[in-house]
User: Which sequence fits this backbone?
C-alpha cells in the first residue's frame, strides 16, 4: 500500500542519515574507491609501530622473560603440573603479542558488492592470515571498538560484523580514520539494502 511504502521510505531515509559517510580525515592512509558496478573497495594499511605497539611489545617481552625460565625449570625437573599451571600465562602473553604487534601489522582488503563481499588480510611479506567471503546480506555493519588497552592507552579497531563473527580492520590506526572507514561501509550497506527493498516493492512491469 501507499502507507507502507511511505513508512519504508522514511525508515530508509533515517537509516541513511545515521550511516551517512564522514569526510576523509586529514592524514588518513586507507584507500577507498568504488568500481563501475558500485562495489565498495577498501585497502586498509598496517598501522605500523606506534607508542601503543612499542609498549605492548615491551610488556610481552617482559612477560615472556618471566614465564619462559619458569616453564623450562618445571619441564627440566619433571614437574608437569607446574608447567601446566603456567599455560594460562602463555595464553595471556600470546594474546598481548597478537593484539599489540601482529594485528596492527595486518593489511586488509575488503570489497562489498551488491550480492557478495570478500575480505583478505596479510602480514608483511604477503603472509595471508584471513581470506573470507559471503553474501552481502549477511553483513550487519561496522563499528569502532577498543581492541586492547596497554598501560592505560587504548588501541582501536574497526569491526566488520556478520552474525556472530567479527573481523578487525585497521588495528592501531587513529580512531577518527577508523570511524570514517566504518561510516563508508555502513553507507554502502544502507544503499544496497535500499536498492533491494525498492526491487521488492516495485510493481511488476
Assistant:
Amino acid at each position: 500500500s501507499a502507507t507502507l511504502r511511505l513508512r519504508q521510505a522514511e525508515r530508509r531515509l533515517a537509516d541513511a542519515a545515521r550511516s551517512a559517510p564522514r569526510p576523509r580525515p586529514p592524514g588518513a592512509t586507507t584507500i577507498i574507491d568504488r568500481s563501475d558496478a558500485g562495489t565498495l573497495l577498501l585497502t586498509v594499511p598496517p598501522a605500523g609501530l606506534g607508542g601503543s605497539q612499542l609498549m605492548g611489545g615491551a610488556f610481552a617481552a617482559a612477560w615472556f622473560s618471566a614465564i619462559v625460565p619458569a616453564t623450562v625449570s618445571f619441564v627440566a625437573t619433571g614437574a608437569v603440573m607446574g608447567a601446566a599451571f603456567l599455560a594460562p600465562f602463555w595464553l595471556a602473553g600470546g594474546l598481548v603479542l597478537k593484539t599489540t604487534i601482529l594485528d596492527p601489522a595486518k593489511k586488509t582488503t575488503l570489497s562489498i558488492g551488491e550480492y557478495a563481499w570478500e575480505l583478505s588480510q596479510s602480514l608483511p611479506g604477503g603472509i595471508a592470515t584471513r581470506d573470507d567471503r559471503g553474501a552481502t546480506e549477511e553483513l550487519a555493519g561496522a563499528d569502532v571498538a577498543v581492541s586492547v588497552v596497554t598501560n592505560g592507552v587504548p588501541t582501536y579497531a574497526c569491526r566488520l560484523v556478520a552474525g556472530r563473527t567479527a573481523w578487525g580492520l585497521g588495528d592501531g590506526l587513529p580512531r577518527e580514520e577508523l570511524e570514517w572507514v566504518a561510516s563508508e561501509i555502513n553507507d554502502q550497506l544502507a544503499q544496497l539494502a535500499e536498492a533491494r527493498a525498492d526491487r521488492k516493492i516495485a510493481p511488476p512491469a
Q: What stands out?
A: The first strand starts at residue 31 and ends at 34. The helical segments are 2-18, 51-76, 80-85, 87-102, 175-201. The radius of gyration is 22 Å. The CA atoms of residues 16 and 190 lie 6 Å apart.
